[in-house]
Amino acid sequence: MRKLMTLLLVWVAATTLSATQALQSDPSSSLKFAVIGDAGTGRTPQYEVGERLAAARETFPFEFVLMTGDNMYGSQTPKDFVVKFERPYAALLKAGVPFFAALGNHDNQSNRFYEGFNMRGERYYTHVVRQVRFVILDTNLMDAPQLKWVETVLSQSSEPWKIVVFHHPLYSNARRHGPNVQLRVVLEPLFVRYGVSVGFAGHEHVYERLKPQKGITYFTEGSSGQLRKGDMQPSDETAASFDQDQTFMLVEIAGDRMTFRTLSRVGQVVDSGVVMRRSTN
Amino acid sequence: MKPRVVSPHVLNLAGSDRWPGARAYRFVIDRFLVLPIGAFVAVVWANTASESYFRFAHALAFPVNQIGMALFFALLAQDVTEALMPGGALHRWRKWTLPFMAAAGGLAGSAAVYLFYVSAAHETVLSPAWPIACAIDIAAAYYVLKTIVRRSGMIPFLVLLAAATDAFGLLVAAWPRWGEPHPGSLLLMLVALGLAWRLKRGGVRAFWPYLGICGPLSWTALYLAGTHPALALIPIVPFLPHEPRPTEVFAEPAPDDAVHRSERDWHEVVQIVLFFFGLVNAGVLLRGYDTGTWAIMTAGLVGRPLGILIATALAVGLGLRLPRDVGWREVIVIALATTSGFTFALFFATSLLPMGAVLTQVKMGALLTVIGAMAAIGVARLLRVGRPAPRRSHAAR
What we know:
- Chain A has 281 residues and is of the alpha/beta class.
- Chain A has helices spanning 2-25, 44-59, 78-86, 90-94, 144-156, 181-193, and strands spanning 31-36, 64-67, 99-101, 125-129, 132-136, 161-165, 198-201, 207-210, 217-221, 238-242, 247-254, 257-264, 269-276.
- Helix content of chain A is 28%, strand content 25%.
- Chain B has one domain (24-176, 228-382): Na+/H+ antiporter like fold (Up-down Bundle), CATH 1.20.1530.
């Protein structure tokens, strides 16, 4: 009887394991998304990045696009929403691809009510897609209620992947702005404590990937419309960077692996790699 | 011969002539220079070991900004109250209307230029910071003018103008911001004021019972009401013992009576608070400048002086008269002397804005408005305000 029970347990364990492996290797179970930042200029490079994004989706069917802020530069009238958002990404919007935006310093705070940004009228918000929790922050004004909210959301989330998106980078080796250390001092302990694996920021008009900082991999994607050529000053913290052309990111999460590719406006792969999920304990 | 009055200073560092640095210490203390020193240390620290600086600043922000600064604002209120008393330096100043109108012009000018700037730059996230652009560092303005003129009708004009401007800013900063006030807050404030009244009626001449018993009650009341608790001692100040201050407005009073001796001790405690205020709040990364920085600077250096000049011209046009020894050249120098926002701008910034990128750029603008002090001194020399015309050498003749 004991032997029978042992065999039964082994059989159950084996079938469960193979099912998990099948789920991880099944492309349809992975989550694919794109990341753009500092995009909303309404000028030719933004349109070209938009076309490249749409073309990339034919082979890499991402489900949504994350925007790291400065989604709109200059005037922000209804006409500007057309010229600086709806037209550049017309193909994606037509295909029903949603955009999830963070607010940058150039964004009018009332843009959170614009339906195309899916912010539901909130300066900071969260959404979960399958096993990935995205926490989108407003780093222009990091008030006490927002800090409390971040801690509550991160501490209560049970998803294995936690990804934070905000405008001002906590780490940066670009010359113009550099890191926002004041924000880092208050946000990073929360990210570390509650198992955030990846952070996406913008603000610097370059692309940069940092080596993991306290276990978290930070990306700066702030050159999907704007570009500050030659602004990078890579340091020991920099894993990869690119400041010669506009860029966007394609990201896939499958199981514990996050695979990413960063492409330039002309389709050149400027960075790629894998980030492993951090433990949420 | 009068017996020498021995001041029972808390710190008594400057009280001893034997201490070799006593004169330098007194110079720094008398001119409120500890805050710029703290600010300088903060900027250097923030740009050399930023993470340790911001951890330190974050940890000390509440005790310094919300508690310690209550002593500063109370001392300022006490100074102005005594200066306005019969026998005080500002008591004979009857022409209040003109500086108040000039203050209104300065407020309108700085706010309008600030809002125009951020709206032209399409950065409306900066709009709520407009009261910061209106701040005048009253002590800095006073000492800038004292550097230019020793004694003139310009000084009370400037002090009243700056006090009116900052009183407006403090009202904005104190406006309750987080939801419904706690129902017990009003009761607690009434208890604080009642106790202060009782102490006054009882003839208590020492300050510390007022500050140490009524102060915490008032602080808690404002905190519960969602109002800035750093202003907690201002309602208590009218109950404090007062003696007229016939000489300077902000300088330490002579230790000629118990009240002034207590104020000297208080003054020194406030210097420690101000040092930490500068240290905790002024640390900005030099690359943190952005639109908010230039907007605050333009508002302070251009908008306010222009507003003051236009409002003064309007007031004079309406029939008000300039003070006896103040002409238009002097008004220009007064307007430029008000350009520095520094302490008050930093205070308003930390009161009105949460941590984040907006606060950083606005703080940097507040620090850079000190340029205006140099401009005031330079323009005063150009316009020959407060100084005799330069002597010509015999050879030149």
